[in-house]
Task: structure prediction
Amino acid sequence: MPDRIYNFSAGPATLPHEVLVQAAKDIVNFNDKGIGLIEMSHRSKEFIEVVDECESLLRELMSIPDNYKVLFLQGGASTQFAMVPMNLLPPGKSATYLNTGTWSKKAIKEAKLFGNVDVAYSSEDTLFDKVPLPDEYEATANAEYLYFVSNNTIYGTQFHQFPETDTDLVCDMSSDILARTVDVSRFGIIFAGAQKNMGPAGCTVVIIREDLLNNAPDSIPTMFRYKTHAEKGSMFNTPPCFSIYTIGLVLKWLKNLGGLPSIEKMNLEKAELLYQAIDNSDFYTGHARFDSRSIMNVTFNLPTPELEAQFIQEAAAVSFDGLKGHRSVGGCRASIYNAFPREGVEKLVDFMVAFEKKNS
Ligand SMILES: *Cc1c(COP(=O)(O)O)cnc(C)c1O
Result:
């Protein structure tokens, strides 16, 4: 077996090694009970404890107020693109969307199936290299909600100031949930696929203010109503057991590190190392504008596509995996989520300096 490589993948993404080791053991024999985690009934006492602990850790780490429900759903973050307007956007009503990349575009497309969509801001004409400040757009009057993507995984941009509006904020936080402290009470809904910063694929966490559970029209199918899942503690049907369990392990790991204030500091330092390397060089160019830079996904280009291909190839040879940028922007992307070790970032910086010397 090779030594563990540095996994810069945007998602599914690197997880703490100790979490993987524990999960591998529990898959075969959960808590030494003689039964494997993934063959256990989701209604068993043991598994209900797993779900309850996962939820209470998430509540504790994010300081989720009591008037919010936490749901563990399936269908990926992409299902939320439809589920949000299904539940919150009745025909004839309007919602405001901020278009800051592929994931918001997809959400806009789905929302249009249900109601009026006002795209109040778009950075598409500059290949989504920035996110807006609160005064750069206006929410539609009487909008049901304002929708935005807090971290644009593909382009490497991130909101550092959340939108200010009287209506409810709905946020796709898939790629930066748990990366920094956030005031949950400012949001109507926060949702996130697990596979970027929380655990393995298969589970989407939805944090929803309780009063919004009653907004869905009668025509919405049972499985697509938030209320269905809220009333049954995410056990209306079989939940994504393995993913929930592993999220719980990741949350424990995060709590032991000191929670969100500690991880935020570590994330800022890791990102700073990479951005400094980019800023100190004429060889590497960052894709995101300075004020919009993400602390989770660092996107950059080299002078030519040929050099980028060579960079990615030589990086892979020294155990840096997943540095190829998304096909829609090209270039390189280093995803440095919570579980990505600082040491890996330092080694990448050394590699970048050496590569530049050799090739510029
Ligand atoms: C990855 C990602 C998605 C899509 O998630 P799926 O679980 O694959 O549907 C949506 N939004 C953001 C911000 C993402 O990074």
In short: The longest helix spans residues 259-279. The pocket of pyridoxal-5'-phosphate is lined by residues 11, 76-78, 103, 149, 153, 172, 174-175, 193, 196 (CB under 6 Å).
